[in-house]
Design goal:
The protein has 5 helices and no strands. It has about 110 residues and is mainly α.
């Protein structure tokens, strides 16, 4: 698979996590809204980086595609209450790092 294909697959999983957060946002869960807003912003930045270059900027966006567990703790989003979101977030985080590694190695 090419990096481009890997990024397409990764963004699909990011959109999946946004879909999982949507019902929580509709229920008025402020921490879920902050989480989703952060993910939407990161996804927009990743798409911008993909469209203009391959290199450190893209690698940086891939490494920060979802908020860290510590970031989520700071906004009081409890991953322990949302197992499916926790698993998918971890998978996305690992996938971003896996895609970024060859970009970083090439620099």
């Amino acid at each position: 698979m090419s990096i481009s294909d890997d990024i397409i697959e990764l963004t699909a999983r990011v959109e999946q996590i946004l879909a999982m957060l949507e019902p929580l946002e509709k229920q008025g869960d402020e921490s879920a809204t902050l989480f989703a807003d952060g993910v939407r912003h990161r996804l927009t930045e990743l798409r911008k980086a993909c469209s203009c270059e391959v290199g450190m900027r893209l690698a940086t966006r891939l490494l920060d595609i979802v908020p860290s567990a510590k970031d989520l703790e700071a906004i009081d989003f409890r991953l322990d209450l949302h197992r499916d979101i926790r698993v998918l977030r971890s998978d996305i985080e690992a996938g971003g790092a896996r895609i970024a590694k060859p970009l970083i190695d090439a620099l």
